[in-house]
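The instructor's notes for this session suggest beginning with a concrete chain rather than abstract definitions. Hand out the sequence below and ask the class to guess, before any prediction is shown, which regions might be ordered.
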Amino acid sequence: MTKAVFFILIIGIGYFVSSKWFYSLIVMASIAILSYMSPNIADFAAYQGVYNFIGANGNEYFNTGYGWWILCKLGNQLHLNYITFKTILLIVGFVLILYFLKIMKVDNNVILASYLVYPAITDIIQIRFFLATSIVLFLITFLIKENVKSYLIYIFGIILIAAQIHPSAYFYLLLVLWKLLFKFKIPSTIFTFILLLIVIIEKRFLMPIISYFGTDQESNYYLSGEFYASNKLMILFFLTTVVFFILSFYMYKNINKDELVTTQINYLKLVIFSNYISIFLVILSTFAFTFLRMQKPIWLLNYATCALYAKYGTKGKLSSGVIWIIYIFIAIIWLFGTEKIALNDFFK
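After discussion, reveal the predicted structure:
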């Protein structure tokens, strides 16, 4: 109960404190402390076992990815226990998020406070996924520069670093196609519709792709047919994705682009595209509900979009405050509707 009150207090501070770096430090310290105080959360024992196994004479264990094996080996060589190792990685991931927000030139506080509402709790628990997607957010700062060198940094950064920590990062390679949606709107829409129909009718076409990108352990889990998302969860995800897409498009249309730099305009387009391709996660969730978590970094992308709209939006009738309320309302639904076990484990 004490941890829950503390966590709610930290969220509330974000909506009233003006200093960006002061609040960023508070959030980073809070996440680190709460993580350190919560060894009973899901996955902790399993990952601790992997960490200790790798530390025993440098055992090879690649079912959690080559990148994760390297990190675990390094942590053991530094004589860190697992909870200290995990806390350090959380801080590293959070620093990458802060860098991303700095490049976007937005108000950190409201974004971070909203992020704490959702999906921070599960990010703290799912450390591999969090670190991998934090790297993806960092790499997005290159993708929006719109030059070949930056595109290559993004692509190889995901393949060689992020995806080696968690294979879910491969999904975000699709973001390199963001310009196609705006250059070829009608063909892109038709192609997407046809592709969706194909994978809905013949899901088996996705099975070799899932097997190729996942580790053996993860592929067996995803393709076992036992952990598919419920209809209620898929409907909630679909409605969330539709709302995100509509709001991101609305903010892009009604923001004062004359005051934005090129990278910020590109970013707004990329967020629309990220919401657009999220619909494919509904199909993947019919294999395993965990595929839906790949939308979690996209929540942060949408939060940053709203912060840009709050700063530069002058045309729209819908205020940034109303949009923030919509985001927080949806976040609360997801938090209490889908993360009850995580909340119980984290705050007990």
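Then share the key points. The chain has 19 helices and no strands. Residues 137 and 319 are 26 Å apart (CA to CA).
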